[in-house]
Amino acid sequence: MSRMLIKPAAATVSAALQQHQRQQQQYVIRRWKSFLHNNSNNANRRAAKSTATATVTAAATSQRHGTSGDFIQPLDVRRSFSTSHKMPSSSKALTLDNINPNFIAMEYAVRGPLVIRAGEIEKELEKGVKKPFDQVIRANIGDCHAMGQQPLTFLRQLLALTFETRLLDSPDYPEDVKKRACAILNGCQGQSVGSYTDSAGLEVVRRQVAQYIEKRDGGIASNWQDIYLTGGASPGIKSILSMINAEVGCKAPGVMVPIPQYPLYSATISEYGMTKVDYYLEEETGWSLDRKELQRSYDEAKKVCNPRALVVINPGNPTGQVLTRENIEEIIKFAHDNKVLVLADEVYQDNVYDKNSKFWSFKKVAYEMGDPYRNLEMVSFLSTSKGYLGECGIRGGYMEVLNLDPKVKAMLTKSITAALCSTTAGQVAVSALVNPPQPGEPSYDLYKKERDGILAALKERAELVHKALNSFEGYKVNPVQGAMYVFPQIEIPPKAIEAAKAKGMAPDVFYAFELLETSGICIVPGSGFGQKPGTWHFRSTILPQTDKLKLMMEKFRVFHAEFMKKYK
């Protein structure tokens, strides 16, 4: 949180909270300065030792991290982080001392130090450095295709035909795919996906999205002019947070986020100098959400900021829960009563595995609740990166903006024009998501087989991971009802906590680094998502293909047994 956004009138309230947030920002800034400083020193040392053997070179490369018996936090937290720490003098115009401090305070745990170390280990393995494993299993991020998922034929054919129009004459492509490709091309300037589109996206695709939403929600109307096509869900989320980033009554804007949360939100809130307002999900009841907890969080935050938006992730990331309709109704009532904008992150809506769970869109529930709730200001998000497509790199998504003041919506549209438009590849992928083959069309049978196979495999892996981890000593694991992740609570022995403290690490970070160095499995510590004080978790994806996932669970079992034996 940037101090300049807090006026003196608010500074006298909840001083301890503000001081904690300032200290946290300053700590992160010092941590990254030290990380970059030591990277520079290590690079110089490696250059001086370029004639050393491969094994010695690899050890020098890993000096910050140590071996499996000497783990060092990649940000080198064993160094002193005094507030007087300064970077070496530099001839550069830009240094860490004179750039926007929010850039340094921002952290994105899913691609943090553990992932950096995992990449280094992969390079060490390529050079022949001996490890107790032969591969790194990246269970840290929801990247479906990187984990072996195959693309849907229909989507890739549609991309091929729209990007190489000469293929429209080929007999190798089904007629229904050609028809869809021609509809998209006819909506492009010059009939080419190489042209700019409207800033909100191709009208033909936006209309398809609106029809898809109407069908999903049982006929509730959707206006295509409320649809904005985005490069994945993230740019849409950031554009809304940027729009509400304004002081009201001399107080900084606050954004209510679930704890645990997806780090995109905490990172963006830090980047924009806003205030993150935590509300806790109830792990004991399957990561449900209690309205009393929402109100407690809101009322406490009102002392120092203006909570302006409420983020809800359903199905949950990292927690894998699916909210009940009753839970959603309570959230909608809270948002209405407290006049906050709802950000409904629904990118995993196709990923529901539990037979007793069902996805309900916030839009549908609010509409069916009647007035005044159907007029609630709300933005919902969907992405081609998740679900059964898993096309993370193509960057396709959309947001539906509901019930905003027309003048405010006009300002949102104006701001989006500065980015020109999202990629046409992403827009074609959105079209494939919302306008798939229908029964009786040539592509339907293969499409259905591939889609159903992907979802069935994810369901199998969700059950496999829950069963395996739930058998580990000191683990508490809620069933994976949806999404692509498991978020178990782990009981870390006091001896391990002391060992972590000695190395300047949080216990869950220490656990994750030992797991990586010992078994090659890369996970994300729960502290990167937020967790109740005194509890420790981690997030792992369920995306590795079933054979590799079984191998991963066995490696995990062996590691955890040895870890408990060592530190109990």
UniProtKB/TrEMBL annotation:
GO molecular function, one term: pyridoxal phosphate binding
Domain Aminotransferase class I/classII large: from-to ranges: 189-542
BP GO terms, sorted: L-alanine catabolic process
Coiled-coil ranges from the UniProt annotation: none
Keyword flag Transferase: yes
Top-rank EC class of the record's enzyme: transferase
Name of the protein this chain belongs to: alanine transaminase
Organism, scientific name: Drosophila melanogaster
Gene name linked to the record: Alat
